[in-house]
Amino acid sequence: MRAGVLSRAHAIGTRTLAEAAIRRARLEGPPQQQLASVAPQLFAMSLFPYLAFLFFLTKSGKTPPLTLFGFYFLLVFVGATIPAGIYAKSHYGTSLANVDWLHGTAESLLTVTNLFIVLGLRQGIREAEAAKAAPPPVEGAALEPEEASMAKSAEDVRAGVK
Length: 162
Fold this sequence. Notes:
The protein has about 160 residues and is mainly α. Helices cover about 80% and strands about 0% of the residues. It has a domain at about 65-135. The radius of gyration is 33 Å and the shape is elongated.
C-alpha cells in the first residue's frame, strides 16, 4: 500500500512540474499580447519591400514571364489569406491555422505560386541552354544572294585568293 501512495504522489508531482513548464513555455501575459499587436503592422510593412522587389524584377526584363507571374501571384495568396483569417476568427473563434479547410485552401494558392515560379525558371534555363547550343549566325546570311556573293568576293580579295 505504501508503494501505491508513493507512486501516486510521484505522478502528481510530475504532473505539477510538467504543468509549470508548459505555463512558462506559453509566454502568457503582456509580452505575448505586445507581440500579437505588432505582428499586423510588421505584416503590412513587409508589403513595401516585396513591391519594390517586384518593381525591379519587372524592370530588369530578364525574368522569365511565368516566373514573374508567379511572384505577382503571391499577392493573390496574401489577398486571399487575409479575409480567410478574418473569417476563421469571426466564425470559428480561432486562427486560420486551426481551421483546416480554410488553411488548406489558402496554402494551395501558395503551392500554385511556387509551381509558377519553378516552371518559369525551368523554362528560362531551357531557353538559355538552347540559345547557347544554337550555332552562331553566319556573316552575310541576312544579305540578298547577290550582296552575299559580293561580300564573299571582297573577303577573298582581302585574303589573297584569286
